[in-house]
Write a structure and sequence with these properties.
The chain has a single domain (8-145), classed as bsu32300-like (Four Helix Bundle (Hemerythrin (Met), subunit A), Up-down Bundle), CATH 1.20.120. It has 7 helices and no strands. Helix 1 runs antiparallel to helix 3 (40-69), helix 1 (8-28) runs antiparallel to helix 7 (116-149) and helix 3 (40-69) crosses helix 6. The chain is mainly alpha-helical. Keywords: Hydrolase, Nuclease, Toxin-antitoxin system. Pfam families: HepT-like.
């Protein structure tokens, strides 16, 4: 794969979409097992929002990987590893965020009946972790764009 330039607009749009999805999760209010079990509309919305956030992050990771490493990840988990290798995510966040891929896969592929107690527990964690993800990727993108725009290619 050939290297392409990092497109800050693509990343910004994806991060904004992640933020909107997280804010929608927050606006739903208290998400507990009972509510998810008894309100199929809320359960479907929460499932979709979790999947959307993970999908958007993977798309962002893939763009970063192609731009910085000239490589595309083979799967969702690897996309987070590649974003880490590119310098967009720190090790602590990498460790916290990778399990969200398993949650997304269980929901999308319906490997088993979705356990709403796990989903309810995962929502506040997802909000926290993906808020940190947005912050780290935005800072990485800004630094990368500044490096690329300096006359000698070095940070100003």
């Amino acid at each position: 794969m050939s290297r392409r330039s990092l497109d800050a607009d693509i990343i910004r749009n994806k991060l904004d979409a992640i933020e909107r999805s997280l804010q929608t999760l927050v606006s739903i209010g208290n998400i507990d097992t009972e509510r998810l079990d008894h309100d199929p509309i809320i359960a479907a919305a929460v499932e979709r929002l979790i999947c959307r956030v993970v999908d958007l992050a993977v798309e962002t990771n893939t763009h970063i990987s192609a731009s910085v490493l000239a490589r595309s990840p083979g799967d969702y988990r690897e996309s987070f590893d590649f974003a880490h290798r590119a310098g967009a995510l720190d090790s602590e966040l990498l460790k916290k965020i990778k399990p969200s891929v398993g949650m997304r896969n269980a929901i999308v592929h319906e490997y088993v009946k979705v356990d709403y107690s796990i989903v309810a527990t995962a929502v506040p964690l997802a909000i926290e972790v993906y808020t940190d993800y947005r912050r780290q990727v935005a800072a990485f993108t800004l630094a990368h764009i500044e490096d690329a725009s300096s006359p000698d290619g070095a940070a100003p």
